[in-house]
Fold these 2 entries.
Entry 1:
Amino acid sequence: MSTQKKYRHIFFDLDNTLWDFNRNSVETLKELFSEWVAPRLNIGVESFIDVYEKINHQLWNKYRDGQISRQQVAIDRFTLTLKNFGIDDETLAALLSEAYIRRSPRKTRLVEGASEVLDQLKSRFHLHIITNGFLEVQIPKVEHSGLGEYFETITTSEECGCLKPCRKIFEFALGKAGAMPNESLMVGDDPEGDIKGATEAGMDAIFYNISGENNPLEALYCIRNLRELLPLLMS
Ligand SMILES: [Mg+2]
C-alpha cells in the first residue's frame, strides 16, 4: 500500500472482526439451552439457535431504527424465541437474557490471527475500537479476551447514541482518539456499518470479507484473513 505512511490510527470493529462473536455466542446459547430449555422442550439446540438468531437480527434492526429500546432487544429475543416453540414464560426469558449478557462477554475466542496481527500493528499505529453494542457487554469482551492491551480507545454505539453506519459514531470515535479522518483507517466485516459508514465519515476502510461474498465499492482493500493486513500496512 503506497499510502500506508499516511495512517496513524487504525479503528477496528469488534464483533466478528476481532472477537469471534459467532462462535462465542453459539457456545453461550448451547450452555443456556442445555441448562434451562432442554428440560422443557424436546427440540434440538440447532433449531433453538436458528430461531434465536433470526429474531435477534430483526430486533437489532428495530433498535437501530429507534423503534425499541436495548432492554427490549435483550429480553424479547428470548421471549419471542421461546414463544416460537410454544413456551410463554417471561420469567424464563428474563433468566436467559440475564445469563446471556453475563456469560457471553466472558468467552474468549478471537478471530484467527487477531492477536498476532495486533501485536505487530501496535508497534506502529494507535489502535482503537468502534463497536455497535451495549457498554456492559462490549467492554468485558475486550477485557476477558486479552484485547484490552492493544487499544487506546473503545467507542460503543450506546455511549454516543447512534449505531454504525451513522456518521456521528465515527466522528465521536475520531474525537476520542484525537485523530483526523485522513490519517485514519477502519477495518471491519460489515460492508454497510463499517465500510460505508467509515468512508462517509472521510476515513479509508478495509473490508474483512470473511464470507467471500459482496465486496463494497467503497473499500480500499478486501481481505479474507486478518494476516493480510500485515503486508499491506507494515511493509
Ligand atoms: Mg462486526
Entry 2:
Amino acid sequence: MTTPPLTHLLEDLRLAAISRALDDKEIALQKQNRAFFQISGAGHEALCLGLARSLRAGHDWFFPYYRDRSLVLGLGVSPLAVLLQAVGAAEDPASGGRQMPCHFGDPARHVVSQTSATGSQILPAVGCAEAGRYLLAHPGIGARATASADEVTYVSLGEGATSQGEFWEGLNTAATARLPLLIVVADNGWAISVPAAQQQPAPISELLSGFDGLHVEQVDGTDYAATYEIGRKIVASLRAGDGPVLLHATVTRPYSHSAADTQSKYRTESDLDDEQARDPIRRMARLAVEAGLLSESGVEELLSEARAEVDAAAVVALAAAPPDPTTATRHVVSLPRWPVLRDGSQRDDGGEELNMADAIRRCLHEIMAADERVRVFGEDVADAPAANLDQVEGKGGVFGTTFGLQRSFGEDRCFNSPLAEANIVGRAVGQAVRGLRPCPEVQFFDYIWTAMQQIRTEAATLRWRSNGAFSAPMVLRVPIGGYLSGGAIWHSQSGEAIFTHTPGLLVAMPSTAADAVGLLRAAFLCEDPVLFLEHKHLYRQPTSRSPYPEEGWILPFGRGALRRRGDELTIVSWGATVGRCLDAAAGIEAENGTSCDVIDLRTLVPWDRQMVADSVASTGRLLVVHEDVRSGGFGAEVAAWVADECFHLLRAPIRRVAALDTFVGYSPALEEIILPQTADIADAIAELTAR
Ligand SMILES: Cc1ncc(C[n+]2csc(CCOP(=O)(O)OP(=O)(O)O)c2C)c(N)n1
Ligand SMILES: [Mg+2]
C-alpha cells in the first residue's frame, strides 16, 4: 500500500478540520437563526479527501451528495463560498441563496448543482458520462461542449439512497455502456433514523457482487491512507477506460442527520462512543503524529487554526446581503430571442401534405441532420439491431415517428433505452448539462410518472436552483391523449396540467402537422426542457394534415392561432379538442348564425394571453375546452386569468368543457361519455351565447 505523501496528508487534515469547523459554525449559526438549516459532512471527511486527491476539478465531473462538504473543499471551493450558502446570501456562488447549505454547484470546477432528492443524481451523472464519450466521437460540436478522453464522472450517495429505483436504473446503464463513472456509496449505517439493515437484505457491495460490467470495491472510509490508495487505483482504472466502479465505503455519522434531527432518540450512547473511536479526523491526526509530521500540540494548533479561518469567513458571510426579493422569479426559464416572423403563420408553399406523425418524423430527420448535438433515445425508437438492419425495414418507435433515424444517423444518435422512464429523462439531463441537445421520448404519456422525479426535480429546477449557472435543454417528446376507441386508462390519458404546474418546463401541444414542425424546430432553440406533447389521435387524422412548412420557418412558443373568426363567443382549446371546437362552432353558425372565435393555444407554457384577451374584448364571452380532466385542468388557469384580467369585458360567466373527473374507459360507451365531444361543446356554445 502506498502511503499518502506527507504534504497531502497535512493539507487534507487541514481541510478535514475546516470541514468539521464549518459544520460546527453552521450549527451555531443555525441556533442563532443566522443560518436556517444544517446538514453535516462529519465522518465523511477522510473518504472525500482521499478520493479528491485523484480527481481533477474542471476536468472530471461531479454530482456530489450533501455530505460531500470536504470533497468540494478538496476540489478548491472556499469555506466562504460554503458559508455564503449557509446564510442564504445573494452572493452564494452555488445558488444565490436559493438552496439549502451543502447543495453545491460550481460550473468552473464541473460541480453540477444538486437537488435534495436522494438517489436521483445518479441518472444525470450517467448522462454526463455518456455525453463525454459522445463528444469525443463528435469533435465538431463546438467549443462549449468539450470532453477529455480520460475524464471521470463522480457521483455519490448514502447507503439509504441505494434503495431508490433510480439508483438501479443508473447502475444498469453505467454497466451496460461501460461508462467511466465512479459511484461512491458512503455508508454511515443510517438513513436519518433507519439503520442500514432495514434498507436492504445485505450491504450494497454484497448485493452487487457479480453485477456484470461493474467493478465493486470496498474501503474503510475513515482511514485516509486507505481511501487515498483506493482512489488512486480506481480512478486510474476509470481513466484507462476499464468501466464503472462502485466504491462502498463505510464511514461514520457523529452528528445527527441534520439540524432537524436528534440522533440520541434512536442511537445508543455506546454506538456513538464506538464511532468516536473511528472518527476520521482523529485517525488522520494520529497518522500525522505517527509520521512525525505533527506533535500532539501541533494537531491542536491545526484544529484551532481551522476554526479561526472558518470564524473569519463567517464574519464575511454574515455581512453579505440576502437576495433581492424581486429576483425570486429570475432564471425559471430563459426563452430564446425568436427569429422575426414574416406574417405570424407558416407559408403555405404548396409543400407536400403530410399527416402529423410523418411531419414530425421528417422534421426530426431535418433537425438531426443540422445539429450533431441532437440525440434521440427512448423505448423502441431505434430501427433494429445493427446486424439486422440490411435485412429488415426497421421499427422507429411504436408510432413510427423516429423511423429511419438510426439508419440515417447511426446508433450513437438514435438508440433504444432500457424500459425505464427515469433512466431516459435523467440521462437527458446529464447530456444537456454537457452541451448536447437530447431528444428523449417517453413512449406513452400514461407511463411518464416513473420519470416525474427527473422531469420535475432534476430537469425543471436546474436553471433556478443554480441561479442560472446550469440548465437542462431537452425536447422530451411524449405521445398523449385519447379518442382512440380502446386506448383505455393506460393509453389514453391526458394530464398536461400537471406539467404546466411545474415552473421551469415549457409545454407545447400542437394540433396540426405544420404547427408540430414549427414548434419542434422552435423547441430545439430553447435553452430549457420542453415537454412536447404529440396527440396520438392527431398523428394520422386527415384534419391535422398540412403542407410541410418551408425550411427555416419556426413557430415561436406563446403564439396561439385564431382558427375561426366570430363575434359572440371566444373558444380556447388545444390538442385534439381544437377540431371538435371547430366542428361545433361551424355547426352552430350554420344552424342559427351564432359565430365564435376559436383559438388554438398551441403552447401552454407560455400561452398566448394577449390573443385570448383581444378575442374576449370583442366577444365578451369565454369557453375553454380541453381533453384533460376538468378539476385543476389548464382550463381553470385560463378561466382564472381571464376573470382576473378581463372581468370588465365579460358579459357572461366563463364555462369549461372537459373530461369527467375520472379515467378513460375501454368501452367506447365509457370513452364517449368521459371525453368531451362535439355535442357537449355545441351545448355549451348555445347555453353561453343565449345569455
Ligand atoms: C427522494 C427523497 N426521499 C426522502 C428524502 C428525505 N431524506 C433526506 S436524507 C434522507 C436519508 C438519506 O440517507 P442516506 O442515503 O444513507 O444518506 P446519509 O444522510 O446517511 O448520508 C432522507 C430520507 C429525500 N431528501 N429525498
Ligand atoms: Mg446513510
